[in-house]
Amino acid sequence: MKSLNERGFRFFAEVQDEPDTDSEVFYNPEMRINRDLSEAAVRVFSEELDTEVRGVDATAASGIRGLRYSDLVDDLHFCDPNPSAIEAVERGIDANGLEASTHEQDANTVLSRFRNYFHVVDVDPFGPFTQFLDSAARAANHRSLVGLTATDNSATSGSYPKVCRRRYGSRPLRNSFMHETGLRIYIKEAFENFARYDKCFDPKICFHHRHYSRLIGRVTESKSRANRSLEDIGYLSFCPECRWRKLEKVRKCGFCSNEDLSYAGPLWTGSLSDTRFTESMLESTPEDWEKSRELLEKIHSGSRIRKPYYDIHEMASQLGIQSPRRDEVLERLSDLGYVTGRTHFSPTGVKTEAPFGDLREVLSDL
Ligand SMILES: C[S@@+](CC[C@H](N)C(=O)[O-])C[C@H]1O[C@@H](n2cnc3c(N)ncnc32)[C@H](O)[C@@H]1O
């Protein structure tokens, strides 16, 4: 095991580029952006709390994720059934002069034992997070922040629709915005799971990056809140002819009247992130965390717009025109008075409240 350092925290692990379930103590430097944004989210959340903060890094590996929360969490726990991982976590706790509890156990056992206890629950497994959802809902305090990572994106983005149906009970859609659809399927799954425990999972910052999706939501124990948010579970309709899309199940295309539409869902039709939360995150994220800030700025830029994003290249090719520059499109749509922003899903994507016909006109005029 090597001694490593991330953002000032010492920890112990092997370094591997590709996730490997047989690895001794796994560490993927590529996931630093995930940890940066998670730490920033925990910072914003913990500043709102007026109590002692209790947190758990439920799938710890080296423990670097939990170690990074150590300035923000008063009572910190780590779980991993792998003895080498727990040994590494304990070395990391010592090396950083901290006090924390370790559990060489399945996260489901530990989380189920600590009912309603944790204000911060972080689940970052290999593959899907589904097997930890029930116990995360048990362990989440009535005011908590829950982070979930999923790396089975090929299922939710439509490469393996049967796996998606089996695991998430949803139909995915393979197209230019498949990762947004996938993220909405994950949020639906998290929301419904917490709702079964009369808790509401409210997305604060959810994103897709490289090979994974990350959901961070505020959990509140509130039946009425969960009932209201049931309105945000629905379907997505997509017209393969003209590329029109809507977060609702409709029979015919709202633009070209095609009746042969594709559907995805059930999925989350609400916001993927909370603008006020991402703004606070931006304020508290150090300037020199450049790549993480870049991603956060894009997430923030599109956070006010619920509609799925459009890929300019795809739209231009469908219209038979040369693709205009994204910034020109954004500027023209804003000049027309439409709420418009970038999207973190694609460098050639735009988010806009503009009606589909107006977007096509803007693209054709540029
Ligand atoms: C992707 S790694 C975690 C990476 C770490 N969170 C980070 O940011 O570097 C997944 C870890 O989950 C652990 N794991 C697997 N099954 C588990 C279970 N049932 N409960 C808790 N941890 C588990 C594995 O041993 C592995 O160390």
Structure overview:
By secondary structure, the chain is of the alpha/beta class. Helices cover 38% and strands 23% of the residues. The chain contains 14 helices and 15 strands. Helix 1 crosses helix 11, helix 4 (107-113) packs parallel to helix 5 and helix 10 (275-284) runs antiparallel to helix 11 (290-302). The chain is globular, with a radius of gyration of 21 Å. The termini are far apart. The structure holds S-adenosylmethionine. Residues 26-27, 31, 35, 58-59, 61-62, 64-65, 79-82, 85, 106-107, 124-126 line the site of S-adenosylmethionine.
SSE order and pairing:
Elements: E1 2-6, E2 9-13, H1 32-48, E3 54-57, H2 64-68, E4 75-79, H3 83-95, E5 101-103, H4 107-113, E6 118-123, H5 133-139, E7 140-150, H6 153-156, H7 161-168, H8 178-196, E8 199-209, E9 212-221, H9 223-229, E10 233-238, E11 245-246, E12 262-268, H10 275-284, H11 290-302, E13 310-311, H12 312-319, H13 326-335, E14 340-342, E15 349-352, H14 356-365
Parallel strand pairs: 3-4, 3-6, 4-5, 6-7
Antiparallel strand pairs: 1-2, 7-9, 8-9, 10-11, 10-12, 13-15, 14-15
The protein binds S-adenosylmethionine.
Name given to the CATH architecture of the largest domain: 3-Layer(aba) Sandwich
User: What is the CATH topology of the largest domain?
Assistant: Rossmann fold
Point out poorly predicted stretches: none
Q: Regarding CATH, which class of the largest domain? A: Alpha Beta
- How is the largest sheet built, in terms of strand order? 5-4-3-6-7-9-8
- Alpha carbon gap, first and last residue: 56 Å
Report the structural category: alpha/beta
Number of strands: 15
CATH H-level homologous superfamily name of the largest domain: Vaccinia Virus protein VP39
- Overall pLDDT level: 96
The helix content, as a percent range, equals: 25-40%
Bound molecules: S-adenosylmethionine
